[in-house]
Amino acid sequence: MFQTANSALILHGYIGSGPDQPALAFPIRLLEIYRQLHRVCPRFSLDALSKTLTHLHHYTDNVYPPCFYKVLNEPPLRFSWLGAMDGNNSLKLVDPMFYAGTTRADNRTSAHDHWLSPEEVDEFKDEVSNSQTTDNEPPTAETEDTDDDVAWLNVNELESMEVEELARCINTCVDRWRNAVAGIFLVVCRHGHVVVMCDMIRSGELMKYPLAMVKQLLDRYGKDIGLGYNIMCTFFKTLLRSSLGSRVVALNLRGVVPAFHGHAHNRACQVRWHPLYVDGVGLEDFEECERTFTKSNNLASVTRLTTSFHRKQAIDEHFYFHDLDKHAASGTELQLIYHKSGNFIYQNYRQANEKEAINRGQLHALEVRLNTTAVDHEAALLSEQQYFKDLCSEPAEVAHTVEYMDLLTKLYAKTAFRRLDHDIIENGYTRTEIARVKTQYRTTYDKYLAIHEEVCQYEDLHGIQTRWTPSSKEYTDALKVMTERRYKQAVSELERLVVGRLFEMTKLGMSGVAYKLREKLNKALKTRAEAIHKAINRYNTTGMALNPPGPRLTWRMPARREAMVLYFGIKRAQEEKVRLDVEIRRLITAMYDDHVDYYCAIGANIIVNPAVARALFRDWASRTAINTSITKRLVQTSCLAGFTRTLFPGERDGWDPTLRDVLQLTTVSIEYEEEDVVGMTSAERREYDVSGLARESDFDDNLVVELMETLATSDEL
């Protein structure tokens, strides 16, 4: 009797992975275990189970070299590596005083070197106050924009009763839940691997935490670091005035506001800090911290009530696996399902090609219509930056004019009460009106005298011989300046409020947002709506008083702005491909050097300590399987348009090249021709990804894959 493969597997307690010729089989008992796990934790999906099984059989260390594994004779990069830092308050630790019973003393700490101690952080606890009292100017001038960039920290829109209610809620929470640790603050590289982190102890996101992070990065990695932070535009001013300011300038650290958060900042901030306008960052969005916290937030429920040591132990294990998972998924076909960032290099290369191809066609059409070139787009950005710089640091004479006009406006408003008797006679006020005017006269006369004295002192100080009057030319010109200033302030405030509301509405529509958070967002949106209504009224009032505008600035034309975005998008895409070419060779070199290190270690122990040699060999085999899969994906990447580098490993600075003499390479350096894949349909791209083959070519791309496969079997134990 004929029996199918799946029928035979069922009889032995297994279920095949396919209907006809299954390559894998899973125990039915395993699926029953998953069923019970899923009932207890509905978020534990089959996808998560599949990843769990994968990692039970494949293991690798927390090593991700594309950012830090420098190779000799690399093409120069504007930034040596790119990263992001941010704080998160999910991983709290409740103070032991709230526990029942007696807490056992435990002075153990984490042994992982990515943790900063509280003492290292507290070195900067007084930096903010010291920087505000010092008379020294910051070492650079790249801090012209104002502090109103931090839109989400502004509570001025709240009514007085709402502010009091907010304060009461905060005080109640503080009294009830005093956390020993309020969360974590960390730095990740652009590939999502944790670089350094610390606890936020009994505080919010204070400036001492990012300052301590910057110090560690400068000490460890030196110059040319590109670092993203949500409030970098404001933080960078504190950084330059701190004790780290001179090192920041000397080592050329460059701050960036992440792409998504940057759109909530005003335009003056965006043209200086948004990644689109920062040379050398490529297509990096600097939002990797948010993606990292999305996973670490799930750890909060099991760490909040543990001991300090066990909390850090759980966090270490989580981020160890987080980094391992990203590396293990790199280059495999499974990462297309599991996590897109696991396919980081390939996807970014293809995205850069698509952006460059699409933007170039649209930009060409606009340039023909506008009669512009690349020089015009660069000049437009500089013009816009200078425009906002002039707004933020207006000339001294303008500031003096506006200040003097404010005093004169108050003075002339009070002067009307000195004409009391004349108004009573000429205007024919009634007895009630006369009594009211007399009362106002008595209460405002003292104010008039004070303002008059202040005006006289101001005129003496600034050498104003003749007081301006509403009929004088000076008064008319100054009134125009003051009106335009108020109009610009109203426009800026309206833009900030509208963008902030869009930011909250986007968050409201995200999945996984809890009910209480949705309620808070809804309430915030109602408050924003009232604030926007008031801002529109101010905008309309100042707009009606505005004189006809001056010459139109070209970069403010919608077509010009669109052309600028397209041009700098192409520029960033080209930079991204250059960086990816460097990262590909770093990764290939690191995988090969790692292979050689294992080979030498196994050879040194195979006779004197065979047990260690066997353990190393098992680990070596697992690494080789992962690295082979990554290499296949890099081969596919090399077949994309724009790749002109090599897949042959380089030589790391400081690494002994003679170690490679123990092995014979079976691969050669291969140069690839360009191929345009931008025109593929979505179906063709899916087939392109899953097949594992970039294209048919004249060379044998398996030679590159053999760099990992053949070396693993050439000297089997």
Automatic annotation (TrEMBL):
Residues 122-147 are annotated as: Disordered. InterPro entries: KDZ. Pfam families: KDZ (PF18758). This is Uncharacterized protein.
